Amino acid sequence: MIQAVVLDLDGLIVDSEPLHQRAFSILLARHGILHEFSEEEYGREFVGIPVRENAAYLIERFGLRGTVDEILAEREAIYEALIADPANLAPMPGALAFLDALRARALALAVATGSPRRQGELILRGLGIAECFRVLVTGSDVPRSKPAPDVYLRAARELGLAPARCVAIEDSATGVASAKAAGMRVIVVPNRYTAHQDLRADARAENLEQALAMLDTRL
Questions:
Q1: Pair 178, 151: CB distance under 8 Å
Q2: Which of 164, 104, 136, 107 is nearest to 13 (CA)?
């Protein structure tokens, strides 16, 4: 019996991928490089990949001056300035109704994100949904990023449940792999950036309303 739902954050609850994409473009512009990433290119090269690897990719591809740590810090500061303004934040289609429906079913809710804690907290507060979640586990809280299972294992532990009692909702291949490795069943809801990925989940939904119906069949 399902007792908890553990959700990814970026691209599933919040439509933050355009802000990530914008932050990378701003970063390049500050280094004198005028390059706007298309949705397809951004989804292929960046989505679901740890941001530290993104920084290394930018250095190699565009010849940026600076270490990975320096480029990463600059990029994170740009992104955090964007998400600190609630006007820039938008929930994914159906996300708020989905959370309300899960709470009405008395399911424990957690977020398991690879983003740093500060960013996760800024987004949840900015959307006004922080109180929906019993647990927030971020990339700051674990030694390894997705696709390692660390964030999902910690979420289950903090919920006080076995992973088999939790269902994960994800949008990317690395997220699916992380939750599966933790021993959770996974429903994937791809977005426009991740639909092309090899999403080897237990079930695939086209939207969150469909994901809710799939959860109901497992209750």
A1: yes
A2: 136
* HSE-up of residue 169 (Cα within 13 Å, Cβ side): 30
| SS3 state at 7 | strand
pLDDT digits (tens, 9 = 90+) for 151-190: 999 999 999 999 999 999 999 999 999 999 999 999 999 9
| Torsion sign, CA atoms 8, 11, 14, 16 | positive
Instruction: Read off the pLDDT of residues 113-133 as tens digits, 9 standing for 90 and up.
Output: 999 999 999 999 999 999 999
- Residue 104 main-chain phi, psi, to 5 deg: -65, -25
Q: Are 193 and 30 in contact (CB under 8 A)?
A: no
For residues 35 and 26, give the distance between their C-alpha atoms in angstroms, rounded to a whole number.
Answer: 9
Active site residues: 8
Question: Considering only CA atoms, which of 22, 51, 10, 27 is closest in space to residue 194?
Answer: 10
Domains of the chain with bracketed CATH: 4-15+89-218 (3.40.50.1000), 17-87 (1.10.150)
Distance CA 208, CA 94 (A): 6
- pTM for this entry: 0.90
